[in-house]
Write a structure and sequence with these properties.
This is Flagellar protein. By secondary structure, the chain is mainly alpha-helical. The chain has a domain of 76 residues. Helices cover 40% and strands 9% of the residues. The chain has four helices and six strands. The strands form three sheets. It has a two-stranded antiparallel sheet with strand order 1-2. The chain has a two-stranded parallel ribbon with strand order 3-4. It has a two-stranded antiparallel ribbon with strand order 5-6. A hairpin with a 6-residue loop joins strand 5 and strand 6. The longest helix is centred in the N-terminal third of the chain and has 20 residues. The termini are far apart. Bound molecules: zinc ion (2 copies).
């Protein structure tokens, strides 16, 4: 059984369902998400620094919500995600459209390399044409 240290609180926990943080922090994060969402409903487009100040949720967590698509980047002023490949400002996810296309192409290429085409078989022993002699009398 694999155990991990929670990157947020350093507790040791058993990761479940692809979670990177411990169950305590998951709950904490849900609460923080509710608070931020509620705050933004009343103050759409608030500057990120004010959101952090008013909700007590740190910027990393807010950016993570945006990354996960749970919050709109546009709903918080100054909260910007950056493409992990080229650094362009993006509104959600990890990569900009251009890099995503390139990644997809790379993946396709990698998949193509791992599945080499079956070598073409030479057709050996071609059936000889048979000639029938017909009698024309
Ligand atoms: Zn934790
Ligand atoms: Zn990019």
């Amino acid at each position: 059984m694999n155990v991990k240290n929670c990157p947020r609180c350093n507790r040791i926990f058993i990761p479940q369902g692809g979670r990177k943080i411990c169950p305590v922090c998951v709950q904490e994060e849900e609460k923080q998400y509710e608070i931020v969402r509620e705050y933004l409903r009343e103050n759409p487009g608030a500057p990120v620094l004010i959101v952090i100040q008013e909700t007590g949720v740190d910027e990393d967590t807010i950016l993570q919500f945006i990354k996960e698509g749970r919050l709109e980047a546009g709903s918080i002023q100054g909260a910007e995600l950056h493409c992990e490949s080229c650094g362009t400002a993006i509104t959600k996810g990890r990569f900009c459209g251009k890099c995503q296309d390139e990644l997809a192409r790379d993946l396709q290429r990698a998949a193509g390399l791992s599945q080499p085409k079956a070598p073409e078989r030479e057709t050996k022993g071609r059936a000889k044409d048979k000639f029938f002699t017909a009698d024309f009398d």
